[in-house]
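debug: dumping io for the single-chain case to check the tokenizer round-trip. Nothing else runs in this session.
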Amino acid sequence: MEQDDHRILARRLDLFHLEEDAPGMIYWHPAGWRLYRQLEEFIRSLMRQSGYEEVQSPQLLPRSLWERSGHWQKFGDNMFVVPRENGRDMALKPMSCPCHLQIFNAGLRSWRDLPMRLSEFGACHRDEPSGSMRGLMRTRGFVQDDAHVICMPEQVEAEVARFVAMLSSVYARLGFDDFGVALSLRPERRAGSDADWDRSEAQLLTAARAAGLAPVLQPGEGAFYGPKLEFSLRDRQGRSWQCGTIQLDFVLPARLDASYIDAGGNRAVPVMLHHAVFGSMGRLIGILLEHYHGRLPFWLAPVQVAVMPVAEQQHDVARDFLRRLVAAGLRPELFDQAETLSRRIVDSHDLLVPVVAVLGKREAQDGFVTLRSKHGQWAIDRDEAVARLSRISAEHGIELR
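debug: decoded output
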């Protein structure tokens, strides 16, 4: 339905906008950025718990690096290039994988250092055709929850299982209890030998099955350097969205001269797993907005609580309650306009705020607050209200019940 288009919802909720003279680039507004950062911190925390070290790599890199990696030959037409008079052209990165190998290569590594898990909220730029762009779903500038595991071949199965467990948990918390999975196999244009592809396809399929997956095979759809598992979410409108991926790569580490000292004291080439749970951060937000018709779960809502004094005499106690909610890590907003309470409640509903906190004369005197959600209303001690709302948000609760 048109009203569920994420671009229309973004205008209604004041989340972001685009400009005609900057096609495919997103201007995030305060409410939209609060949602964005909530998702970012959510996945960052899980990555840290799973043993990943966060890094940051440059945006502008030499063309020679992209030629060595093979990306120039594959993606050169879609890269934003900065020509230089000395012939050493630079380009904005379309992905972060060569950068993470450069970080790996900056030190002498041994088998004891592996697996090395690196993550980055990597800002990427791709010169997409103008007709292919649609709001957040496809843009020229985007950020990925990018991660790479550099490891020994015998560690691949355990690392794929680790990723699948994390991805399953994340999707369930976002409200997607089921997802589709496909294994994309060697494309016609590819790097690496047939032996490399035979090995990587067989190993990734074995790892997927060991992780409890039964992927549908997709011949010809793999990345140019390796096969990949693709994970698709089905929204409430029955549409399928490809989000997460994990790719097994025997090619890129060798191309960029990555190596480690194995247990026998010999130099060996590692393998690399490329993966993302969300994919594009912005695109996931677009999917969530349309999936929930804008009524995001409590823990994700840009404004979680609308704090409403009934009359001017309750403004001070309302501001105090707002400060306590903010101190507890919540995202409240004060609705103290010179309008009737019922009008302000309607305004909060139009903005799809999940919880309304009403503070009138009785609440102010007795230390209570009246909380309202679509499931009803409760008079509750203000300390208890802060603790309860904070707990629901921290536990990724859907809404107050």
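debug: round-trip ok. The domain at 2-291 is CATH 3.30.930.10 (BirA Bifunctional Protein; domain 2).
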